[in-house]
Amino acid sequence: MIEIEVEKIRNKKDFIEFVRQLRMDFKENKEEWENDTLENYLEAFQAAIEAMDNYYINNKLEIPKNVPWNIFAEILETAKYYE
Questions:
Q1: Quick check: 71 and 78 in contact, CB under 8 A?
Q2: How many CA atoms lie within 13 A of 53 on its CB side?
Q3: Cα separation of 81 and 76, whole Å?
Q4: What's the rounded Cα separation, in Å, for the pair 69 and 49?
Q5: Nearest to 45 by CA among 25, 16, 66, 75
Q6: Residue 36 DSSP class
Q7: pLDDT, tens digit, 9 for 90 and up, residues 18-74
Q8: 63 contacts: CB under 8 Å, gap ≥ 6
Q9: Burial 17-28 (b: 16+ CB within 10 A, else e)
Q10: I need a labelling partner for 52 at 20 to 30 A (CA). Which of 26, 44, 45, 69 fits?
Q11: Spacing of C-alpha 57 from chain mean position
């Protein structure tokens, strides 16, 4: 179970804790995950990004501006090799 709320992530430490909890949730509750392979997860990750603006619009939230997309790309790329 993921205890940290996404809306409350404010810094690197919070984000690391979120990722740790996400990883543990996968390990302990894999059967509950729709996207339980890396390929499916990355496909859903891409789809979520593509639909992101609609999510914010439908939930009457402000669409984030100045998202550091290159940071996400660097993290995803680095994780391919990092041990």
A1: no
A2: 2
A3: 10
A4: 10
A5: 75
A6: -
A7: 999 999 999 999 999 999 999 999 999 999 999 999 999 999 999 999 999 999 999
A8: 52, 53, 56, 57
A9: ebeeeeeeeeee
A10: 26
A11: 19
